[in-house]
Amino acid sequence: MKYYSLNDPEAKAETSFRDATIRGQAPDKGLYFPERIPALPKDLIENITRYTKEEIALRVISPYVGDTLPAGELEKIVAETVNFEFPLVKLDDRTWSLELFHGPTLAFKDVGARFMSRCLGYFVRGNDQPVTVLVATSGDTGGAVANGFYGVEGVRVVILYPSGKVSSVQELQLTTLGKNITALEVDGTFDDCQRLVKQAFGDPGLNKELFLTSANSINVARWLPQQFYYLFAYSQWVQTLGKKEAPVWSVPSGNFGNICAGLLAHRSGMPAKHFIAACNANNTIPDFLQTGAYKPRKAVPTISNAMDVGDPSNFVRILEIFHKEFTALSNVLSSSSTTDEQTRVAIRKVYTEAHYLPDPHGAVGWLALQDYLSSHPGDRGIFLETAHPVKFYDVVEPIIGEKVPMPPIVQNLLGRKKQSEKISPDFGLLRDFLRGEKRK
Ligand SMILES: *Cc1c(COP(=O)(O)O)cnc(C)c1O
Q1: I need a labelling partner for 274 at 20 to 30 A (CA). Which of 73, 301, 328, 406 fits?
Q2: DSSP classification of residue 306
């Protein structure tokens, strides 16, 4: 399998999975896209309950990786990527929650980050110079990336996060690892962090001196493995219902990588009745699907902060999956926008009526699914619960008026000491810092 840049669809697909993973973005700044969408083996879909997680994941990802990883290595990477639970939990006769928060940093991003870090670790093995992964985070990405790369030989990670704008659990996940992970606490916003990272990648001198790469969600090695858990969920769904029914999928969406992976899996043969991109007040895509006009805007802050994106990068990949045919796209995908107040009401309602505590992102997904089901009486569906509610206990506890029980993994974090370097949002300072790190 080869990849091409979406900025240049005329170009031949000539980039390997290896190079696409190392580079992140194409040199023309476009996103990489596979030259073809492989079909999943028929038997896998027909008899999915007979397959293990590892077998499903391996069959999904193999065509995309091709021969850039030896078979044994890929098997090992896949097994390590999915070595936790992905439970499908029933809330009522029409609604299921796919819990994607049982990984080490309690959010779905663990899957992509674990897979990517191990692939990159393999690809740079034997390099005489360490790679520096530079990443800006609004919250969950940083923790997942830090955890995924922790202790990986030949890779250093520098994370930029906006001071005071991530939840306390998220901050501890970023700042308490040490070893090859460094956190920079930027006195500014997420946009400042992202601008600094972009400036670093755009600085030829710095790139030459340090082998810089990104672990951003547009990297194919983070995007593609997100297909796995849709199939894990489908397997459990068939098992519970005792029949093969296509579910409605509701996906809390920000940068649209997660839902794009679901749509890709669907294109490859995974059953789906419909997809809903559940957004918060950042409604660029809901508006686009209503009007046909794409108008990016500045992100507005909400209580589901991991979805505060005004110009979702992965949306161009969704357009590519549907060959930019608007009608084909809007038959499969709809999108809704939810206010913080509606999200709070939803959290309270699910908690009191179904005795289930969703996090703010999952609650946006739940609400979008209920709206859809109310006008589609015969359907049932799954919403993706993308993070553990404890990650946002500062938001959730006042809504339900109770403490959220701390899992041991979080209790352990709360006892640790934050280690970060404060910097003001100035590229000169970042450059000096990165150069200084190299000399260490
Ligand atoms: C990143 C994130 C999202 C949004 O996922 P995208 O792939 O960017 O659409 C939703 N929920 C949580 C908890 C996240 O961390």
Answers
A1: 301
A2: G
CATH of the domain at 310: 3.40.50.1100
Helix (H, G, I), strand (E, B) or coil at 92: strand
Residues 329-348: tens digit of each pLDDT: 999 999 999 999 999 999 99
Is 170 touching ligand 1 by the criterion CB < 6 Å?
no
Atom from ligand 1 closest to the CA of residue 256 = 9
Buried (b) or exposed (e) across 309-341, using 16+ Cβ within 10 A?
beebbbbbbbbbbbeeeeeebeebbbbbbbebe
**Alpha carbon of 35 to ligand 1 centroid (Å):** 26
390 lies in some domain: yes
What six digits make up the tokens of 419?
A: 């280690």
Find the DSSP H helices in 83-227.
109-123, 140-149, 168-175, 190-201, 204-209, 220-223
Tokens of 29: 């700044």
Cα distance between residue 12 and residue 34, in whole Å? 11
Asked if residue 37 belongs to a domain, the reply is no
Please name the residue whose Cα sits nearest to atom 2 of ligand 1: 306
Q: Which tens digit of pLDDT belongs to each residue from 80-132?
A: 999 999 999 999 999 999 999 999 999 999 999 999 999 999 998 888 888 89
Closest by alpha carbon to 183, among 163, 162, 158, 166?
A: 158
Helices (H), 188-255: 190-201, 204-209, 220-223, 228-241
Domain count of the chain?
A: 1
Containing domain of residue 349, as a range? 85-108+223-400
Q: Is residue 424 part of a domain?
A: no
Q: How far is CA 408 from the centre of its chain?
A: 24
Expressed in angstroms and rounded, the spacing between residue 316 Cα and the centre of ligand 1 is: 17
The answer to whether residue 313 sits within a structural domain is yes
Amino acid identity at 135 = V
Q: Which DSSP string do the residues of 33-63 spell out, in sequence order?
A: EESS-PPPPHHHHHTGGGS-HHHHHHHHHHH
Is pTM beyond 0.90? Reply is: yes
Q: Residue 43's CB: how many other CB atoms inside 10 A?
A: 11
DSSP label at 166?
S
Measured CA to CA, the distance from residue 93 to residue 436 in angstroms comes to 58
Task: Yes or no: say if 99 and 111 are a contact pair by the CB < 8 Å rule.
Answer: no
Residue 140 Cβ inside 6 Å of ligand 1? The answer reads yes
